[in-house]
Amino acid sequence: MRYSDVCGDMNLWHEAFLEAAMTADEETLVMLLDAGIHPDIFDDEHVTALQIAAAQGNITMMQLLLSRGADVERCNEVGMTAFMHACRNGHIEAVEFLLLHSADRFRTTFYGVTALTLAIAGGYLDVVALLQNERCPTQDDAPTPLCAAVAKRHHHIIIFLELLSDEVPFIDDPCLYGLDAVRVAQILDDKQISELLSDLGVSSKVQTPNNRFIAAKAFEPCLSYIKCNSVLLPDIRFLIRDEKVHQLDRMLRRKRTFAPLPDGTTALMFAAVVGNVDVARVLLKNGVDINASLENFTALMIAVVCGNDAMVNYLLDMGANDSTNQPLSLAELAAHSEGIRDTTIEKIEKHDVILRPKGKSFFSKLRKALNFRRKKIQAVQHCPNEISFYGQLAFRERVNSSMA
Predict the structure, then answer these.
(1) Comparing C-alpha atoms, which of 251, 283, 242 is closest to residue 56?
(2) Where do the domains of the chain lie, and which CATH numbers do they carry?
């Protein structure tokens, strides 16, 4: 992102800053910090860039933000600090890094949940082992560490807390509206966990709860806040949309976890819409399935409909299956799509596409599967200046909408 691209409106500056943190765009982040953006600006949920970096386990980003004055104890609207985000998402290196930078390990969320309980809720044994001696008492309305392990069915955490931890970190104290781990398992009707607790010698310290006030169906929402909406993952679609090739390659090579894509879609399908061959090359190099399909619609077919000739040629050269499994062959589809060159159509025809008739027309099924709307859209860098009816099915509009 160039300096001139950033609007003078401060809200847009702030949005650009937080988006850069979400996509690990260090270059843009530095540029905006140099331009005077405060490192502790936050979104509507009071999430800061440091919290995002901690939730993603991005040490480099955290170092940058802290060096520019970011507050390590700044929390979001439920009281979660960067340290708590790192614990909840199991980033042990980020946890250790924040402890070295004086993160308060004894702090709780506004609900009274400790960092240890958050790590247990995520099932991250290495973080639990690191925090096991941090004896921070849980508040009355919050789940204890053992209650969290029981509610999330983390057998290995339960065993560790009872048998292997150096000392019991308040795990047996009745809490969570007067309940303990044994009563939690009983209310959730989890016989397997109840048997495990019994085998470990864990007994209840509270009387049997009155079912009129604590019903099993009403209990699970009481546990939901141990999640605290802490999963802040980068969305690969932002990197594809903005054609951040080098950042995408770096994050994939580092095996970073991304936010889930819509069911049935792949990152290559979105790259086919954008039309950037370099993005597609990075995705294929990192193991994305070239022939994955959504309702039989592959990335190659999407590139054809969008009129992205270079992408079509690249996918063909990389061995993409050109059978459409539809009434129209790929060559026929390309012939009706402006932007696909005659030489590309001839190249497709040489593959001897097998026609497989179906009862439902290709485009009606396409619209139903991807919920496209007919709307004239402006051509972008990788597309022809004029888009035909088939291009008007608005792949880009649909994708940009989902990525915005």
Answers:
(1) 251
(2) 1-103 (1.25.40.20), 105-232 (1.25.40.20), 236-403 (1.25.40.20)
